[in-house]
Amino acid sequence: MSAQPSPTAVAAVVVLAAGQGTRMKSATPKVLHDLCGRSLLGHVLAATEPLGAEHTVVVVGAGREVVEEHLAAIAPQAVPAEQKEQRGSGHAAAVALEALPDLAGRVLIVNGDSPLLRTATLAALVQASAAAGDVLTVLTAEVDDPTGLGRIVRGDDGTVVAIVEERDATPEQRAIREVNAGVYVGNAAALRDALGRVGEDNDQGEQYLTDVVGLLVADGAQVGGVVAGDPDDILGCNDRRELAARRRLLNDRVLDELMLSGVTVVDPATTWVDVTASVAPDAVLQPGTQLLGRTAVATGAVVGPDTTLTDCEVGEGASVVRSHCSGAVLGAQASVGPFSYLRPGTRLGRGAKVGAFVETKNADVGENSKVPHLSYVGDATIGRGANIGAATVFVNYDGVAKHHTTVGDHVRIGSDTMLVAPVTIGDGAYTAAGSVIVSDVPPGAMAVARAQQRNVGGWVRRRRAGSPAAEAAEAAEARAASDTGSPGGSTTA
Ligand code: UD1
Ligand code: CA
């Protein structure tokens, strides 16, 4: 026996995402623009997902192929419905309802450009609508500046009687500060019926979803309006200024939550954390930090200043200073920077160190190993306790293919060593500074692979006569000669 659907549940969610987004002035469809780690559409779907609707339909049109591709990636359970011509939000809603089977329950319709909507706000709307027994309930908000938004017209008894778009509103209606959020919940059959009767007699010549309110009220149906607890929730996004403003608000929400949970954010104004990132209590985010994608920062870690981490894991007590990292995993107590670049596949063991001006890629750096200065480490496995001298290059590319280098435990790679892959340096081995290592080095060996030094005596005096270098050399020679000439020989300190 199947369970009876709860009266407060929604049977279907419809997201309107077919609009051009003309005001964005973009080759990218509006709903795909990103803020805080998700597209506009992604935020809306993340808010509706916990409501547990059996059906989710996304109306697509402008940029349909890319929007559908995106949808398949972020919400494969959602079904796209094509609105061939963008004839208005009412027409879009009608297209969605046609794509749905006959529903006994209620349907929630949401604009696809409202990234700040929260699940709790939607759930409260659905609940209030069911409790009141409304045929349709609209989410509204009281705002200081209603410019551009549909106004909620209430009758003398306070019930919602119409929604009037700003461009169609009378001066008195424009003075109303209660606005339409673009979120509606109602009876699917009644909505279908009313949408079939929506005209195009308005300033834009479009079918307005908002007109169903007046139609249903005229039918004698009960229509309600629920004011959102936080007016920020309903903010849409129509141009790039609004996109920036919504991003700022969403980021503030993320940072507030982090700070309340025990994270130190030194400068919220310059710290950006995606909704998909996580930071544990007692981590510290210094100014100019960006935590993007699936980045996770553990307790006691310090990130920044001026650091961007994308899809990285930062272990307990680790630190990253003025660096740019993506797809990297930093063990506990590891340290990175300043000024380093960690690329995907980098894994730093516990206590490992990547210092200044180092680039790494597909590199495993073992526990307590160090790459302190000016190196490139690509396609490498480095054991524990090893030290990679300054300016070492893991020469991984032969011009066609990439090759791997293995460096054992407690190895000492001399400064300016070229490790020409594929090559293996055995445990405890050394390489001499300036070596070009092309063959394997056995454990414990010292590999020297550089030209023998030759000093050409007196060259500067002969070939650079009169230069400051020659004068300095002559003065040094004269001092040496007088020292050896004096009784008692050379001085000792
Ligand atoms: C809409 C509401 C307005 C409300 C505001 C809240 C209407 C007529 N007006 O105005 O009352 O205050 O949202 O932000 O609905 N869309 C389609 N197909 C179309 C046209 C639009 O799918 O043919 C989608 C858009 O992608 C968008 C949504 O419908 O997600 C709303 O369209 P938009 O043009 O942004 O409406 P607004 O002018 O913002
Ligand atoms: Ca809009």
Automatic annotation (TrEMBL):
One of its GO terms (cellular component) is membrane. One of its GO terms (molecular function) is glucosamine-1-phosphate N-acetyltransferase activity. Residues 460-493 are annotated as: Disordered. It catalyses: alpha-D-glucosamine 1-phosphate + acetyl-CoA = N-acetyl-alpha-D-glucosamine 1-phosphate + CoA + H(+); N-acetyl-alpha-D-glucosamine 1-phosphate + UTP + H(+) = UDP-N-acetyl-alpha-D-glucosamine + diphosphate. Its EC number is 2.7.7.23, 2.3.1.157. It is an enzyme of class 2 (transferase). Mg(2+) binds at D113, N238. Its main location: cytoplasm. Residues 1-240 are annotated as: Pyrophosphorylase. UDP-N-acetyl-alpha-D-glucosamine binds at L16, A17, A18, G19, K30, Q83, G150, E165, N180, N238, R343, K361, Y376, N387. Residues 262-493 are annotated as: N-acetyltransferase. Gene3D superfamilies: Hexapeptide repeat proteins, Spore Coat Polysaccharide Biosynthesis Protein SpsA, Chain A. Its cofactor is Mg(2+). It comes from the Bacteria. Binds 1 Mg(2+) ion per subunit. Catalyzes the last two sequential reactions in the de novo biosynthetic pathway for UDP-N-acetylglucosamine (UDP-GlcNAc). The C-terminal domain catalyzes the transfer of acetyl group from acetyl coenzyme A to glucosamine-1-phosphate (GlcN-1-P) to produce N-acetylglucosamine-1-phosphate (GlcNAc-1-P), which is converted into UDP-GlcNAc by the transfer of uridine 5-monophosphate (from uridine 5-triphosphate), a reaction catalyzed by the N-terminal domain. Homotrimer. In the C-terminal section; belongs to the transferase hexapeptide repeat family. In the N-terminal section; belongs to the N-acetylglucosamine-1-phosphate uridyltransferase family. This is Bifunctional protein GlmU. It comes from Petropleomorpha daqingensis. The gene is glmU.
